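Field: COMPLEX_INPUT
Field: COMPONENT_COUNT = two
Field: RESIDUE_TOTAL = 833
Field: MODE = joint
Values follow.
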Amino acid sequence: MAALGVDCSEASEVEGNNFSCQKTADSWKRDIIRQLKHRDKSQKSMFQDVIRSYISLLERTNQQALITKGILGSGSRHLASSSDSLPSLISKNDDLKKITGELAYQVVELQQEIRIKDSVLEGQAVRMCEVQRSLQGVQSDYGGLAARVAEVTEGNRQLKREYDALLERHHDMDQTFRVEKVRGQELLEDLIKRKQHAAVRMNSRNERRVRAREASLQKELETAGKLNVTINVKKRRGNSVCLSLQEDLYAPVGICVAARVPARALHVLDAHELGINAVRFSYSSNLLATGGTDRSIKLWDVKGGMLHNRGTLDGSNEGITSIEFDPTGTRVLAGSYDKSALFWRLDDSVPKLTLTGHSRKVTAAKFKCSMRHVVTGSADRTVKIWDLHRAACIQTIEVLSYCSDVVCSEFFIVSGHYDRKIRFWDSRAASCTQEVPLPGKVTSLDISPDHRQLLSCSRDETLHVVDLRMNSCRICFRAEGFKCGCDNTKAIFSPDGSYLAAGSADGAVYIWNINTGNLETRLPEMHSSSINAVAWSGSGEYVVSVDKSRRAVLWSDI
Amino acid sequence: MADDKDVLRDVWFGRIPTCFTLYQDEVTEREAEPFYLLLPRVSYLTLVTDKVKKHFLKVMKAEDVEEIWFEYEGTPLKWHYPIGLLFDLHASNTSLPWSITVHFKNFPERDLLHCPCNSVIEAHFMSSIKEADALKHKSQVINDMQKKDHKQLWMGLQNDKFDQFWAINRKLMEYPTEEGGFRYIPFRIYLTMSDRPFIQKLFRPISPDGHTHTLGDLLKEVYPVAIASDDEAKRYQVVIHGIEPLLETPLQWLSEHLSHPDNFLHISVIPAPSD
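Field: COMPLEX_OUTPUT
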């Protein structure tokens, strides 16, 4: 190669000198190209194929060797392992020991895990037991509650049954009630019928009496007619012959000469059913009338030191407040709580007249001096004057205050009032002529038989006597232990006008002497409650006191 | 120009048949057979000898293997020289195939560089290119290139891809026309009988007066000994890529077409064979 190169270079040099620059340029390039080609031929191409096939052969042999190695692998490996040297065995032993150690560690760990899981399981089992127990408890509670529910429903049913039974009973009761109501109504009707019958009977009786009287009258008239009577031709003027309605106005009145102070009780009795408010002796005889809350006036006769019942006057619808006899002693006037005054003729128990017109209770009813007129005082603050023949009120006097008592003299009416005044009224002019003030409520008035003195009993436990002539001079009577029992306590003059008598709240009768002004005597112990009224007989022998507890006591000095 | 392309191809695809023999003192399990291989001239030893290593490792125990190194007739072969250069320098006139001895032990620390992996070879290769471009274009062209271009150069060399390599390398072979050539020519002259590894100097391809320099001019300037005088017998051969270019070959053309992939003209001056 080197020789060739030298040749080429020489040749090219020669050529280069002869030719132009361009050719020179080409020549060295051509030379280079040629040289390169030559080089490659000698160096590369000759060996290329050989080496390529060599390499492929080598690869093939390598592969075959690998394959054979693989086939013989297991066997050769055993041989290889058995022929391993001691250190490798030892190292293998160490590895195995390490592996066993790791496995043992893993075993320990797994055992730990197992233990943990076991404890967890236990806990769960415990919880399950608890839950089961609570479930049982709940079930038993539920059973108990169900039983209670059954009980309660049973109780309800029972109550319902009872209620139904009660309802039935109620129905029955209702029926019986209705039936009874009907019966009651029937009974009421029956009663009304009976009352009507009684009324009819009374009416018939009254009619009979009237008829009897008429018949007797007729008889008398007949007999009188039969008699030959010389009739004066001269007619008398003035005096008209009238029948029984107009009576003699002036009857002989007994006058008491001397009253006797009573000393002891002759007769004690329960005169009425309820409390006795008023008592009055008749002027001329020993006829006594008592009246009280039981609405009837009882008539008594004093015989042999005892009170004998002579009759009863009915007709008041409510309690009796005051009683008055007329001067003849045949007629009785009474004031009543039923706002009326009643008038009886003693031969009739039925009231002849009822004077109504007051708007409140009539506290006193008195005859005016002429027998035709009656004066009533009432709690409605009026005093009315009535005409008996017409049975009507002819005058009403406004007296400005609750009138508790009324007395009449010839010229004026005297009224006592709760506003602590006594008023004098001119009956004709109906005007107040005088007012006498008192320290306490006026409970009763009484006029002395000679109409010269006026006695008033007042609530301040005093009695006052007013001289009617002089109208001012007053004497005041007091006594230790004397107390007005109520607003209607009555005090009276003795028939001779020398003593005063009044009943006290302590149940004793007090008698004062007017002339001396002192307490004459005191009659205790017969009454157990306060004395409402006293009455002195016209003869002066007897004193009767009546009290709230329906007792009447007859006193006398013997 | 087609000739130029042929020149480039011939330069790239140059091959040297080689026989690798394991050094007999290496401890082997069984007889190691020699390994034959065609080595590319333009590549580097450690880049292309993987098969050789594998072949010889088959017969050796792993604990006996250290870094592989090669030597020819006692001379450790520097892997950072191109293979073609090594052949031209050491065994150009010997019989083929070239016999290289493979060693696995007793790495000669003072003579050889270690080559632990391919990235070392890549670093060396790229630094050579950069050095060459620094001489040629003041590093402008190489610095304008992207990293992928650098990578492409290396991959082209590693995988023996001529087109891939020259797609980028032609940029490095361009020069501004007003210059007429590179700034300086990158070359190295290697001598067998010298303690200097190589001669590298700055040398312009065009003289200041516009005269193109030739190979002869270069040698006269740098190593006049290589050129024989007219009357004397030629004592030295100037070998590039296994051929002796005429001395009037323009240096610029040589640098463009006969450079190694690392853009250097590696010139060997060997004693002429005395027949």
